[in-house]
Amino acid sequence: MLNNLYQLSEDEKQELFDAIPIITLLIAGADGKIDKEELEGSEKITRIRGFSGHEVMQEFYDKVGEDYSERLARWLKVVPTDTAERTADLSSRIEKLNPILAKLDQEWGARMYESLTSFAKHVAKASGGFLGFGSVSKEEAALMDLPMLTPIEMPEEEA
Questions:
Q1: What is the DSSP code (8-state) at residue 133?
Q2: pLDDT for residue 130
Q3: Where are the domains of the chain?
Q4: HSE-CB of 117 using CA atoms within 13 angstroms
Q5: Of the candidates 42, 56, 47, which has an alpha carbon nearest to the alpha carbon of residue 122?
Q6: Is residue 91 within 8 Å of residue 148, measured between CB atoms?
């Protein structure tokens, strides 16, 4: 699977690996507070996807999971503390993934896009609420579809 990244530079690969903690901090901090549950939930989601996610993405999440806690801690130290500044900074970083995703094979790029947006939704729901209801703030809801990413559609099957 990671061989699907062959056309990317090492820096571009690292940007994809960093996308997971960046998305975590974007969504978790959207409402002004980064909850421990959201951070822990994102790590669990990453680990689970390494063995039970879509098979095309499992190796990617395995790789991200190798040092996820360290990556997340590193990003947590450097992002702005002001909510609006942090949201703008992290949104800009995610937007920079568009040309990287466009370099990928269309099917793989579509799977990556789908996986990133799905991951964001899981982080938004990680902070609880009553039986998982009402746990997504309006700020998280506005960002969890990652509107800064250009959607990549799955290629049509040839007949």
A1: B
A2: 45
A3: 9-143
A4: 16
A5: 42
A6: yes
**How far is it, in rounded angstroms, from Cα 92 to Cα 148?**
8
Burial class (CB in 10 A: 0-12, 13-18, 19+), 159: exposed
Give the pLDDT confidence of 93-147 residue by residue, as tens digits.
Answer: 999 999 999 999 999 999 999 999 999 998 988 765 444 545 788 999 999 999 9
* Side-chain-side CA neighbours of residue 112 (13 Å): 28
Sequence length of the chain is: 159
d(C-alpha 139, C-alpha 91), whole Å: 13
Helix ranges, 6-158 (H): 10-28, 36-52, 55-66, 68-78, 83-95, 98-103, 106-125, 138-143
pTM: predicted TM-score of the whole model, two decimal places = 0.91
Packing angle, helices 55-66 and 36-52, rounded to 10: 130
Compute CA distances 70 → 43, 46, 73, 96, whole Å: 11, 13, 5, 22
Residue 64: exposure state from Cβ atoms within 10 A (0-12, 13-18, ≥19): buried
